[in-house]
Amino acid sequence: MSGAMTGADARAANDMRQMTALGRRIEDRSFAIIDEEVGDHGFPDAEWQVVRRVIHATADFEFSSLMRLHPEAIARGIAALKGGAPVLVDVKMIGVGLNEQRLASYGCKIHCFISDDDVIQAASAAGSTRAIESMRKAHRLGLLDGAIVAIGNAPTALLEVVRLAREEGARPALVIGVPVGFVSAAESKEALIESGLPSIVARGRKGGSPIAVAIVHALLLLSAESAESAQATVAPEPAQVSR
Q1: Residues 182/170, Cβ–Cβ less than 8 Å
Q2: What angle do CA 24, 226, 42 make, to 5 degrees?
């Protein structure tokens, strides 16, 4: 690769700047307040951008101690986005919250099967859950490998992704595991961490669709920034000298 910004990179970077000047100042001030109140946090810069956006979305500073990022999570997430990977979500609420235009800049498409008739029928017949069967359908369709999987609601979906990776060789690029709840939510996240899959996790019971959305949007911003940084560091071509 030459390091030059592609057309998709440029569109993604432009899409990330749709906020008005006043909106940008408000967001910048919000981030500054978070930085001030959290203080020393120990996250590398790119990881902190993800964690800080989660705090911004929730106004909950406890996430500074709950977030766990696999060492390859940021790089895998950016590469998947820039490669046009599918974005698989457990509930429609996440898909509604995501900016499809930004994702489409890279060729990424959102997939959610939770309400599909065949998924509902399979869950009823097997005595499982729609969330489980939706992940199985994604795997059958070949959408799980190389995908960004964002789970904010259903612990059973997260446990199924871990099982599919362990038993059937599924290889998502990145799993965002932030389901909220009291039954298996915390346990599903620990299972994801233990699986070794590249992941971004909010440990414990807290989580939810807004957090999953915030994480994906943070990765989109990082992908645009990485493209701009690469463009800035490309050495100019030597001038041609007439002879």
Answers
A1: no
A2: 80
Closest CA to 147 of 115, 111, 113: 111
Alpha-carbon separation of residue 195 from 85, 163, 190 (angstroms)? 21, 9, 9
| Active-site residue, selected from the candidate residues 41, 56, 111, 217 | 56
pLDDT in tens, 74-125: 999 999 999 999 999 999 999 999 999 999 999 999 999 999 999 999 999 9
pLDDT of residue 39: 86
Domains and CATH numbers, the chain: 7-233 (3.40.50.10230)
Give the pairing type, strands 199-202 and 67-69: antiparallel
Distance, CA of 58 to CA of 211 (rounded, Å): 8
Which residue ranges in the chain fall short of pLDDT 50? 1-4, 230-243
Give yes or no: 56 in active site: yes
How far apart are the C-alpha atoms of 105 and 72, rounded to whole Å?
A: 23
Q: What is the DSSP letter of 155?
A: H
Instruction: Enter the pTM of the model.
Output: 0.86
For 38-48, b/e burial (b = at least 16 CB within 10 A) is beeeebeebbb
Alpha-carbon span 213 to 150, nearest angstrom: 8
- Counting beta carbons within 10 angstroms of the beta carbon of residue 209, is it exposed (0 to 12), middle (13 to 18) or buried (19 or more)? buried
Alpha carbon separation from 49 to 1, 67, 143, 181 (Å, rounded): 26, 12, 28, 25
Predicted confidence at residue 97, as pLDDT, reads 96
Note the pLDDT of residue 226.
Answer: 66
